[in-house]
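The freezer alarm interrupted the setup, so I double-checked each line after restarting. Inputs confirmed:
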Amino acid sequence: MIGMSTAPAGRRRGPSKGDLREQAILATARDLLSRKPLDAITIDELAAGAEISRSSFYFYFDSKLAVVVALLHGLAGEVGRDAGPWLDGAGPDEPALRRSLAALAALWRDQGRLLTGALAAAPGCPPIARWRAWLREAHVERLAARIARDRAAGVAPHGPAPRVLAEMIDDLRTAAFAAASDPEGLVDDLVVVELRMIYGVLPAHHAEG
Amino acid sequence: MIGMSTAPAGRRRGPSKGDLREQAILATARDLLSRKPLDAITIDELAAGAEISRSSFYFYFDSKLAVVVALLHGLAGEVGRDAGPWLDGAGPDEPALRRSLAALAALWRDQGRLLTGALAAAPGCPPIARWRAWLREAHVERLAARIARDRAAGVAPHGPAPRVLAEMIDDLRTAAFAAASDPEGLVDDLVVVELRMIYGVLPAHHAEG
DNA sequence: GAAAAACTCGACACTGTGTCGACTCCAGCC
DNA sequence: GGCTGGAGTCGACACAGTGTCGAGTTTTTC
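Predicted 3D structure, all chains:
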């Protein structure tokens, strides 16, 4: 995940033993999260996976949630991946929206339990709450701006305040992906639904009987 | 909440001491839930509120979540309240949808923490998961049927499978209400958004500039 | 090769949950 | 009146998971 060669090499210090242990904890966490939900994972397991004692774990992280925060930061860049063309564009640009949603769906497929666990832990864990709020805000703000632009251009109908609508879309995405066993199978339907929420029914989707 | 007069009366046994204690536990739970989230409530507090020892609590309920389940069942009737006219009707019947959402919003206003706590506990607590699934299914099924009917009648445009669309609408409601500090303030916007998800933009909401 | 830092761990304290068995209380019955 | 059995009560215990502390060992640095 770090991408460095595994050679500690004699000369020039590579990652210190501590760095390796820290990575081992993170790797163990990722691994366990692929198999069970966050709150079924104990610090014991995390420590065992990194081959250190439970007390040593605390040398590296303050708590289980601190590990989650670290994993989350590793994800920060990926969350908004490919959303640019959609968020910065204008009008019902279906392909751009689909690309944005496809990237998000892939993330939920790979990191679903991490995201689910983080979401569940957010109330009661300020750092995670902040991460979540920051991410959500980034999306909501740009999407709201886009909606306002489209309305001003007469491309989108009036309705709920852009910000409220954007929040609902964000909520819907999160809820739908969190509940789905196959996030990627949801993309096409989400595309249609989001476009409807913003623009109403597009001509191509109209039906007569 | 039980509705009986408070007189234990000399003759004819009223509720037994145990029944009263059970009610006291439920009342304490409701009370605490109005002030803090479920997982900040301990069995100690519940027992103290009912003026019994912690071990005695277990005479009445198997666990904290069993109390939640009991509270939830007390709510079962209210959740779908006033949804009938909307779910059994046809076409974009905005007033009916609004009444249905208003009733739901009132429930979230009064029981938000209970619902939030139950939702969070559902994975990992089969009885709660079943309650949630049953309720959701009841809504989704009727809504999906309604959407299918409207499409067949040419009133609603085609799009995602009725069931999928109904699930998204259910998810959106839950997510929006769970996140809102003022659920009732969301009703009008939800009405517009849900109608759009099903029917597209209605004439009255079109804008030209 | 000695001081400092990085690291490790066992032992402990704490919180919350759930169980067990002994005890009390009270109603109904001989 | 005294007996019995079920309802209700509780203290003591066992357990899991978390987090802390201080005494050790290893590694780095000069």
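Quick read of the result. DSSP finds nine helices and no strands in chain B.
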